[in-house]
Design a protein that fits this description.
With 159 residues, the protein is α/β, with parallel strands linked by helices. The protein is built from five helices and five strands. The C terminus is likely disordered.
């Protein structure tokens, strides 16, 4: 089996949430939140993480509007990613991230994480959700299954 290490990014105005997959590309783990400083500094930090973890591909959350169009924030994300790819040309996938932060917040609230702690980890967790969703889709495709196939199997398990 070929090792493929993915990096998931949740690029925001103030922070960048970063997640990394395991070497086989099965699970995602949130690793850090980068406080945005300047484009060169942000890119340098990401380049270091990419080198340290031997990342082979990027999965970047793209904040689409509810009608599936690119809004101003999505354009900013694409601009940032274009600059990153000039520095390190890795294969890239965009992933719909519309509800990743909401899901991360709900998960943290359910786990009774304090509001102060949530602010620190929410972007890292959103990046993890974006990346894990991508990895799950890849696994479904590899098995020739759709999410509906998997859902049907889970709700109607075979004896």
């Amino acid at each position: 089996m070929t090792e493929q290490r993915y990096m998931g990014l949740d690029v925001g105005e103030k922070t960048i949430g970063v997640a990394i997959s395991d070497p086989l590309g099965f699970t995602a783990q949130g690793i850090t939140v980068i406080a945005r400083q300047s484009l060169p500094k942000d890119l340098a930090l990401l380049k270091k993480i990419i080198a340290d973890y031997q990342v082979t591909a990027l999965v970047v959350g793209l904040p689409l509007s509810l009608n599936n169009t690119l809004g101003p924030q999505a354009e900013k994300v694409k601009y940032f990613v274009a600059k990153l790819q000039k520095e390190i040309p890795l294969p890239l996938e965009y992933a719909d991230e519309r509800f990743s932060t909401t899901l991360a917040e709900r998960t943290l609230i359910a786990a009774d994480v304090s509001r102060q702690k949530r602010r620190v980890v929410i972007d890292k967790m959103a990046a993890q959700i974006i990346l894990q969703s991508f990895l799950d889709r890849m696994a479904y495709r590899a098995k020739g299954q759709t999410k509906e196939d998997v859902s049907a199997t889970l709700t109607n398990p075979r004896p």
